[in-house]
């Protein structure tokens, strides 16, 4: 009840977890309805992965940590802690009551926002797969993708990236089709190169083979299994943010500094130490809860660390067992520290 009465905090939680994704998708829906040729469909696989890994993962952790820091310090800042102790209720019970109370607020909010994202991304998904700017049938096997490329050599050669030998087309080389259907490329300053129909098909198949791995990871809309796994993953991230923030604020006795530290942990420290190996400190880096959560990220999503995107150096290697142990350790240790501090604090 104390948390729900803080209207500013509740409004911030609703805006970040529900408002931002909903407004973004609503704008895309309106833009596509008004000018479908200028603006693509509102949903789809790419929109889903960008919102989940780039927005809901990072900001969900931050607002959950803010809620946890508030729950851990609200009684002290409002002068209510003494009145709670006078009731004779165990201090440990007072602390542990905050965990289900906070999760009862943050978990449904994250679930509502995620449900909106899933619904729009599935029902407003594009009807044709656009891979590298080329309309391609979705869900093809390697053989099927090569067969499509052989049947559409001009689209494959001119539209898909490829790194071939001296006689093959190169990435970024201009390509156009003459009126007679012949594919012509311009390899630097050496002049035009006319490709025969037989060479067209051979090059198209080679291009398809090189692009298949990336193509196989591109879909019209997210699968049911990916949506379930992604939903559980961002709920786990929010729960970690809340519980760690609760313990940290209870230990420090204030909210502001605790919130700042949680933001620094998520936005600054985790991206740096999760991708840059430091000699003799590699095991300490593996103890970061953000790195452990990133290793539990479902396949098919870009890396959430650093605001999304799969670019940059790879994550520091860590097994799934170690990642789970790190997460459990953070939850247990910060809960124990917060409960210990509340039990020893002067009323």
Order of helices and strands: HHHHHEEHHEEEHHHHHH
Biggest sheet descriptor: 3 strands, antiparallel
Class based on secondary structure composition and strand pairing: mainly alpha
Portion in beta strands = under 5%
Radius of gyration from the alpha-carbon trace, in angstroms: 26 Å
Low-confidence stretches: 165-173, 187-191, 306-310
Large-scale geometry: elongated
Instruction: Calculate the mean pLDDT score and round it.
Output: 82
Number of helices: 13
How many individual β-strands? 5
Distance between the termini: 22 Å
| Largest sheet strand order | 3-4-5
- Count of all domains: 2
- Level of helix content? 55-70%
Q: What does this 3D model show about the protein?
A:
With 347 residues, the chain is mainly alpha-helical. The protein folds into two domains: 7-127 and 220-344, no CATH class; 137-216, no CATH class. It is built from 13 helices and five strands. It has helices at residues 7-34, 45-77, 81-86, 91-96, 98-123, 142-151, 153-159, 197-216, 224-252, 256-275, 282-285, 289-295, 320-344, and strands at residues 129-131, 134-136, 175-177, 183-185, 193-195. Strand 3 and strand 4 form a beta hairpin. The longest helix is centred in the first third of the chain and has 33 residues, at 45-77. The chain is elongated.
């Amino acid at each position: 009840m104390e948390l729900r009465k803080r209207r500013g905090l509740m409004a911030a939680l609703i805006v970040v977890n529900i408002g931002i994704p909903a407004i973004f998708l609503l704008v895309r829906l309106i833009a596509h309805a008004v000018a479908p040729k200028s603006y693509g469909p509102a949903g789809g696989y790419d929109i889903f992965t960008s919102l989940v890994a780039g927005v809901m993962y990072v900001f969900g952790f931050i607002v959950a940590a803010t809620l946890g820091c508030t729950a851990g310090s609200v009684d002290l800042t409002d002068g209510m802690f003494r009145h709670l102790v006078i009731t004779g209720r165990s201090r440990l019970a007072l602390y542990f009551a905050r965990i289900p109370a906070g999760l009862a607020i943050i978990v449904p909010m994250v679930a509502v926002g995620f449900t909106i994202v899933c619904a729009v991304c599935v029902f407003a998904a594009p009807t044709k797969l656009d891979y590298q700017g080329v309309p391609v049938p979705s869900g093809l096997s390697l053989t099927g993708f090569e067969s499509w490329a052989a049947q559409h050599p001009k689209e494959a050669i001119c539209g898909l990236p490829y790194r071939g030998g001296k006689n093959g087309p190169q990435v970024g080389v201009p390509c156009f089709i003459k009126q007679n259907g012949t594919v012509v490329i311009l390899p630097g300053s050496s002049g035009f190169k006319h490709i025969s129909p037989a060479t067209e098909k051979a090059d198209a198949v080679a291009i398809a083979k090189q692009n298949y791995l990336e193509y196989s990871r591109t879909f019209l809309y997210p699968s049911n299994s990916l949506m379930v796994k992604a939903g559980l993953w961002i709920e786990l991230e929010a729960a970690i943010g809340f519980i760690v923030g609760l313990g940290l604020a209870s230990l420090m006795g204030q909210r502001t500094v605790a919130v700042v530290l949680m933001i620094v942990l998520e936005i600054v420290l985790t991206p740096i130490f999760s991708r840059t190996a430091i000699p003799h400190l590699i095991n300490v880096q593996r103890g970061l809860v953000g790195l452990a959560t990133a290793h539990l990220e479902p396949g098919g999503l870009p890396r959430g660390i650093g605001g999304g995107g799969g670019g940059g150096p790879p994550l520091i290697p860590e097994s799934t067992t170690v990642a789970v142990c790190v997460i459990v350790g953070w939850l247990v240790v910060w809960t124990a520290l917060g409960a210990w501090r509340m039990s020893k604090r002067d009323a």
